[in-house]
């Protein structure tokens, strides 16, 4: 799957029900080092407006391991995103407090194709 897919960073940003996800970072499950964006390939899907799923295959430079990573970002209320990460022990949940992007800013970004504030 690594060679058949694009780096996830080129598929960003992704809008999650009024919030913009601008990056996707994984850590190696063997050595816990961050995986470079260029070595994280995969798919980004959005089955529902409040849910974005990442299925990634990545290569760790530190321990030379190829690993898979699956994360789901689910907006649970206007200010909270639950990050669900599939680990060897099952799903692990963490939470992010967010600031929603005002609709005029979202509109202008889509209209003119830029991502800066």
Tell me what the structure shows.
- This protein is mainly beta and 117 residues long.
- It has one domain.
- It contains one helix and seven strands; from the N terminus they run βββββββα.
- The chain has one helix spanning 103-112, and strands at 14-16, 19-21, 40-48, 51-59, 66-77, 80-87, 90-97.
- Strands 3-4-5-6-7 form a five-stranded antiparallel sheet, with no helix packed on it. Strands 1-2 form a two-stranded antiparallel sheet.
- The mean pLDDT is 86.
From the spread of the alpha carbons, the general shape counts as globular
Number of helical elements: 1
Q: What can be said about the biggest beta sheet?
A: 5 strands, antiparallel
Spatial sequence of strands, sheet with the most strands: 3-4-5-6-7
Q: Quickly give the structural class.
A: mainly beta
Unreliable runs: none
Radius of gyration: 15 Å
Count of discrete domains: 1
Distance between the termini: 34 Å
Residues in β-strands, percent:
35-45%
Helical residue percent band:
under 10%
Notable characteristics:
mainly beta, 1 helix, single chain, two-stranded antiparallel ribbon, 117 residues
Question: Could you provide a short overview of the structure?
Answer:
The chain has 117 residues and is mainly β. Helix content is 9%, strand content 44%.
